[in-house]
């Protein structure tokens, strides 16, 4: 773990994977990563901490950030406890091809119906629902138009995933309820035999 009391900027460099848990960043306002192998921080960043990621696969946790979060290269992971950033906040997944955002079913269901999420969160290709997917009709176009949805706890009840791209993926990491029902609607499948 890291405990930093007075410094305002944390720089993480190197060419080996770096993982830290239980961080205490009393006065940190910016984290800059140039590590090329990937950095994982397991304590949620304070709202006033800016993050600039490196070339590796970074992983962080955030809340209602009021700063710019830019994940950089690599297939990064952002776990968020909110679907709305604070004033001045933004989250850019960077240049990876499988950048993942992890959120609860409730957050996803509340975010997909308006343009607000896509105006503040950008560049994610993968959505992971961290808990049971419960009786929602999720429109992935409102969630960065992700092409992969991971249901970490499976489906509980009757649910739907709408407007996923042709060739997209829905992955089940758990069985969920005994008799779940999930409908998957592919984007433009109603109007075109070859979806786009």
Describe this structure in words.
With 196 residues, the protein is mostly beta strands. It has helices at residues 105-111, 116-120; strands at residues 3-4, 9-12, 18-20, 24-25, 30-33, 39-41, 50-52, 59-62, 68-70, 77-80, 90-92, 100-103, 121-122, 126-129, 133-134, 137-139, 148-151, 155-156, 158-164, 169-172, 181-186. Strands 2-5-7-9-11-13 form a 6-stranded parallel beta sheet. A 6-stranded parallel beta sheet has the order 8-10-12-14-17-20. It has a 3-stranded parallel beta sheet with strand order 16-19-21, with no helix packed on it.
Q: How would you summarize this macromolecular structure in one to three sentences?
A:
With 196 residues, this protein is mainly beta.
Please name the defining characteristics of this protein.
single chain; 196 residues; mainly beta; 6-stranded parallel β-sheet; elongated
Mean pLDDT: 92
Poorly predicted runs are: none
Q: Note the beta-strand portion.
A: 35-45%
Question: How big is the Rg?
Answer: 18 Å
Helix percent band: under 10%
Strand arrangement within the widest β-sheet reads 2-5-7-9-11-13
Number of DSSP E strands = 21
Structural class: mainly beta
Query: So what's the overall shape?
Result: elongated
Topology order in helix (H) and strand (E) letters = EEEEEEEEEEEEHHEEEEEEEEE
With helices defined by DSSP (H or I, 4 residues minimum), what is the helix count? 2
Biggest sheet features: 6 strands, parallel
What is the terminal separation in angstroms? 46 Å
């Amino acid at each position: 773990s890291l405990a930093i009391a007075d410094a305002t900027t944390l720089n993480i460099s190197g060419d080996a994977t770096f993982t830290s848990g239980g961080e205490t960043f009393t006065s940190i306002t910016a984290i800059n990563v140039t590590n090329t192998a990937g950095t994982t921080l397991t304590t949620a960043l304070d709202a006033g901490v800016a993050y600039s990621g490196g070339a590796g696969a970074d992983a962080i946790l955030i809340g209602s950030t009021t700063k710019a979060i830019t994940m950089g290269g690599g297939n990064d992971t952002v776990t968020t406890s909110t679907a709305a950033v604070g004033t001045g906040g933004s989250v850019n997944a960077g240049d990876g091809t499988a950048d993942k955002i992890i959120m609860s079913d409730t957050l996803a269901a509340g975010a997909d119906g308006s343009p607000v999420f896509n105006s503040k969160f950008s560049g994610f290709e993968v959505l992971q629902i961290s808990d049971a997917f419960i009786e929602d009709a999720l429109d992935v176009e409102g969630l960065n138009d992700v092409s992969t949805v991971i249901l970490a706890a499976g489906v509980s009840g009757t649910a739907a995933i709408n407007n996923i791209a042709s060739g997209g993926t829905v992955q089940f990491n758990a069985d969920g309820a005994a008799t779940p029902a999930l409908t998957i609607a592919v984007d433009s499948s109603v109007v075109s035999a070859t979806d786009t």
